[in-house]
């Protein structure tokens, strides 16, 4: 994660809000944001270096970058990440699925391996999403943070620890406008040689209908988790660790309660990370694996939800691997 910490006290000095409001409604005490000149690919490279080192790998067959805050609309950032990591001319592409990006990306990488396209994949979730958040908007500025997390996936046996799956993935595009950056895409072009007059200032930033998103998040994450547990033949009592997307502590707690997963099995670091979109879950896994809160042999349920709307879940038995975390 980038070094610059933005505390709730910092936010209170420039927004009409209170520390109590932010912490009680979201569980967030601080978040990290990139400094000027630092972008998503820079964070992705740092996470990639650490993941490759932890895995003891110097080469992979593909690099996949999940991000919704790309350095540029075109091209994708993954080829630059691959080059900067010295990985050569490997397959490299970005995947955009907002806060579900890590689960969608795991499924995509598993597919690359299953189809024989790759034997190993470096998969990174990286976000500098603070650059898409209006610093003057009290409804979004407290929530989002920047960071990156990465994993190395390789071909293996379906019954060995670390094997990922089954999956549940879903979407509901009828609610696309609940969480959106409206400007800058093909619908509201940034400029046609005429400046930015067509895009209202607020449309450069994220717009969020917080309460509706909250309700969809709890319902979809709970249903998706139930589906994947069913597919895996697990019951809630089989889940040793619940790694839910860190959107809001109340969302995570509510989903865990509905699934009957005890509080001490729920992993959370949102108090220090905020919502880091596709980077949220890998940062959580890396931090808790490095601290020992997540350990080899534990059965992990991973569930995410985000803009789109989109959601997804998977399960795995945590393998005996080294994890490196820098929070
Ligand atoms: N400080 C103080 N008051 C604030 C505030 C802030 N930072 N942000 C909003 N408010 C106010 C609102 O203006 C509203 O005031 P009103 O009742 O006078 O209109 C009031 O607080 C309640 O707003 P509401 O949006 O209904 O609050 P909430 O309890 O739903 O909490 C969120 C707001 C954003 C914390 C919550 O909706 C949420 O977490 N939603 C999901 C967001 C999310 O996870 N997004 C990413 C999904 S991956």
Automatic annotation (TrEMBL):
The last Arg residue of the ACP-binding site is essential for the weak association between ACP/AcpP and FabH. It is found in: Cytoplasm. The active site is at 99, 245, 275. Residues 246-250 are annotated as: ACP-binding. Its EC number is 2.3.1.180. Homodimer. It is an enzyme of class 2 (transferase). InterPro entries: ACP_syn_III_C, ACP_syn_III_N, FabH, Thiolase-like. Its main location: cytoplasm. It comes from Saccharopolyspora erythraea (strain ATCC 11635 / DSM 40517 / JCM 4748 / NBRC 13426 / NCIMB 8594 / NRRL 2338). SUPFAM superfamilies: Thiolase-like. Residues 229-318 form the Beta-ketoacyl-[acyl-carrier-protein] synthase III C-terminal domain. This is Beta-ketoacyl-[acyl-carrier-protein] synthase III. One of its GO terms (cellular component) is cytoplasm. GO terms for molecular function: 3-oxoacyl-[acyl-carrier-protein] synthase activity; beta-ketoacyl-acyl-carrier-protein synthase III activity. Belongs to the thiolase-like superfamily. FabH family. Pathway: Lipid metabolism; fatty acid biosynthesis. One of its GO terms (biological process) is secondary metabolite biosynthetic process. It catalyses: malonyl-[ACP] + acetyl-CoA + H(+) = 3-oxobutanoyl-[ACP] + CO2 + CoA. Residues 93-173 form the Beta-ketoacyl-[acyl-carrier-protein] synthase III N-terminal domain. Keywords: Acyltransferase, Cytoplasm, Fatty acid biosynthesis, Fatty acid metabolism, Lipid biosynthesis, Lipid metabolism, Multifunctional enzyme, Transferase. Catalyzes the condensation reaction of fatty acid synthesis by the addition to an acyl acceptor of two carbons from malonyl-ACP. Catalyzes the first condensation reaction which initiates fatty acid synthesis and may therefore play a role in governing the total rate of fatty acid production. Possesses both acetoacetyl-ACP synthase and acetyl transacylase activities. Its substrate specificity determines the biosynthesis of branched-chain and/or straight-chain of fatty acids.
